[in-house]
Design brief:
Layout lengths: L3 E4 L12 E3 L15 E5 L10 E2 L2 E4 L5 E3 L10 H7 L11 E7 L5 H11 L12 E5 L11 H17 L4 E7 L4 H12 L4 E6 L1 E4 L15 E5 L9 E2 L7 E10 L6 E5 L6 E7 L6 H4 L3 E4 L2 E4 L7 E5 L2 E6 L1 H15 L7 H6 L4 E2 L28 E2 L6
Parallel strand pairs: 7-9, 7-10, 8-9, 10-12, 12-14, 14-18
Antiparallel strand pairs: 1-3, 2-6, 3-5, 4-11, 5-20, 11-13, 14-15, 16-17, 19-20, 21-22
């Protein structure tokens, strides 16, 4: 499904001086929704049989060109926002590792990551100091060819982990391409790296309900995956796999409340009920109304225009969201908690009291609980968003 969103709540004057635009070869768009706000475009090509698409959406101009700037876009979420909004400030992982699995190479990965971290005052994370490791899907160091859309996706993933958990180590495993036959082995490679607490997968095949695969089943590691950006879609591999923690998405904006932010379900956040994969034992099927594995379990910021992260890519700042943003943030929160024995999704369901319960917003017309946010579990946002690490 090719779409171009228009997001309200981002003022026309919010773009920093010196802004420019660029066209990503894989960026796609269709008829805008609404008549005001800010455009966003998909940065990766849509999924096709046997392949995944990344779930990143970048803020763009009216013609569909991704906005890049010499300074951060004023409305974009920063590391300070992520840590304040989700009560993560001051928390430490003790150097636990978050693994990121993506497709293709990214030639400026390390320099872009460190420009981002330097700008926001985060600790250096380099291959030289042991914080950053870059692997191919076989565990070696032969970088695959680059792809501009997936490169931007990798920048988002790296910056999102950095924002939520500045002291986490990062391993990024680059599959040869976006075929599941390569992404799956890349996940297995990530799971073999010593110290990995979480593996983030910000990609999928929306509407695909393939059976769970062993590549994504690693007890003792929080394997998280984005639910997608097409609203209610029944399923999305790998988020629909029963060994995977499915991460939905929200819209979030600063306000005058005690928390300082207002949060609702994002209309694009994927939700659904698998027909091929039974619900894991920890999911409460009386709440989900589904015998199969239900998306989502938990959620994080995803609306590109209302909570989209400030990222640094190829020498410029952009504002990027989608459930590609929420997955690495949740992976980082699991690394902060350190509670990853067995299948760690059980912790969320066992005690969701330390999550922000998102009760407004919708991602479709299927009603409650799969499309409409409400008290307790719902499809677009799962059990809620992090309020510290108490439920992880």
């Amino acid at each position: 499904m090719n779409r171009k969103f228009i997001f309200s709540g981002l003022a026309a004057g919010a773009l920093a001086l010196g802004a420019l635009t660029t066209v990503l070869p894989n960026a796609s768009a269709s008829t805008p929704q609404g008549t005001s706000g800010t455009n966003a475009v998909r940065v990766c090509a849509p999924a096709k049989a046997g392949f995944a698409s990344c779930y990143a959406w970048a803020v763009a101009d009216a013609s569909g060109k991704v906005v890049q700037s010499s300074a951060p876009i004023a409305a974009a979420f920063t590391p300070t926002d992520v840590q304040k909004a989700y009560n993560l400030k001051g928390l430490k992982s003790g150097g636990r590792t978050v693994a990121i699995v993506d497709a293709f190479g990214y030639p400026t990965l390390e320099s872009d990551l460190n420009a981002y971290r330097d700008f926001y005052g985060l600790p250096k994370c380099t291959t030289g100091n042991g914080c950053l490791t870059i692997l191919d899907q076989r565990g070696g160091h032969q970088a695959p060819p680059p792809n501009s859309g997936w490169d931007l996706e990798q920048a988002l993933d790296l910056d999102a982990v950095s924002a939520a958990c500045p002291d986490c180590k990062i391993v990024i495993v680059q599959a040869d391409n976006a075929a599941f036959k390569n992404l799956g082995p890349a996940v297995a490679t990530a799971a073999k790296v010593k110290g990995v607490a979480a593996i983030s997968n910000s990609y999928g095949d929306p509407g695909s309900d393939g059976r769970s695969r062993g590549d994504y089943n690693h007890p003792g590691i929080a394997v998280v995956a984005s639910t997608g950006d097409s609203g209610y879609i029944d399923s999305s591999a790998p988020a629909s796999f029963r060994s995977v923690i499915a991460v939905g998405g929200t819209s979030i904006v600063p306000d005058g409340s005690a928390r300082g932010y207002s949060e609702s379900a994002w209309s694009g956040a994927g939700s659904g009920c698998s027909e091929n994969n039974l619900a894991p034992a920890y999911q409460d099927t009386s709440a989900t109304k589904c015998k199969g594995d239900s998306m989502a379990d938990v959620s994080g910021p995803a609306n590109p225009g209302q909570g989209g992260l400030s990222i640094y890519y190829n020498g410029h700042f952009s504002q990027v969201g989608g459930t590609s943003e929420s997955s690495p943030i949740i992976g980082a929160v699991f690394a902060l908690s350190g509670n990853t024995d067995g299948h760690p999704g059980k912790y969320l369901w066992r005690d969701p009291s330390h999550l922000y319960d998102i009760t407004t917003g919708s991602n479709g017309s299927c009603g409650s609980p799969l499309c409409d946010a409400g008290k307790g579990w719902d499809g677009p946002t799962g059990l809620g968003t992090p309020n510290g690490i108490g439920s992880f």
